[in-house]
Amino acid sequence: MTDTTVISPPPPGGTPTGGTPPADITNMTSPPTTPWHTTLDNEIKTYAHKKGYDLSDPMKAFMASAKGHMEAEKFLGVPPHQLLRLPADINDEAGWKAVYQRFGAPVDEKGYDFSSVKFADGSDLDQGFAEFMRKKAFELHLPTTSAAALSQAFVGFMEDADKREVETAGSKLAEEKAQLQKDWGNNYEYNRQTAVQGANKLKVTAEDVAALEKVVGYSRVMEMFRKVGAGTTEDAYIAGKQGGEFMTTAQTAQARLNELTNNPQWASRLVANEPEARREFDQLTKLISDYKEEAA
Q: Which residues fall within 8 angstroms of residue 137, CB to CB, at 6 or more apart?
């Protein structure tokens, strides 16, 4: 059976009975929409505004952001894990310590290894000096490689300073010896032997003499020992006796006799048979000939 139900058209200005009014398809006004950027984080929106991004168009904002990021990468040139952020607070000890460690500083003093630092002869650093360098290197936040290089530089400087000191001392000693030989003249060997005997009297070692020379000079040391050997404090260079005893070696006796015989005044005194000149001559010749008196 065919359905012949007829729907009557709505009356003018009205709606069908029991129905809902149809949509007005002639109304072209779009419903209001929420801007796309309203849901963005406030920090991002603030940053975008500062940069001048056009947020009215998502595509324009994206293009501006991407371009800025690409430009930043060109200047950075490294991945994020290679970037170093400095502490904002200069008193941030932990933050700065992390920075120093990124540059190669150890976490404590024990991290410094100076085993590779050697003297020219291959010897190791003095333990005290090594500990001093560890402490100072850690205080200055030096990288381990820099601390070792600085220590090696110090070693080289000290060795060069020692070398220069030895060279200077050697030059000065040579000058003083030359001057003393000039001052003592023909009496040089005799006075030198007398000085040696004076040092022996005082039981002074060669090391002690070297130490004294550094303090007061070679000339003064030799003259001091000469006076001790001569048993007198007089200023004359030549002494016929030494503390009441004549010289005790044939070598020094010969040097003394040569000196005296080259002195015309003394030779005249000997020819005149002066007691003092004759006594000294006899003693010298006995020593030179190894003469020994027979026991009484």
A: 109, 112, 146, 147, 150
pLDDT at residue number 236: 37
Q: Residue 287, Cβ neighbours under 10 Å: how many?
A: 20
Mean pLDDT computed over 17-38: 64
Say which residues have a Cβ less than 8 Å from residue 165's Cβ, sequence separation at least 6: none
Asked whether 212 and 225 are in contact (CB, 8 A), the reply is no
Helices (H) and strands (E) in the chain, counts: 11, 0
Q: Which of 51-55, 153-157, 241-245 has the highest mean pLDDT?
A: 153-157
- What the block records as the tokens of 286 is 């006995």
More confident residue, 205 or 164: 164
What backbone torsions phi and psi does residue 81 show, to the nearest 5 degrees?
-70, -10
Contact by Cβ (8 Å): 285, 291: yes
* Residue 253 burial by Cβ neighbours in a 10 Å radius (0-12, 13-18, 19+): buried
Place of tokens 């030059």: 171
Of 137, 250, 115, the C-alpha closest to 190 is: 250
Tokens representing 40 are 């963005």
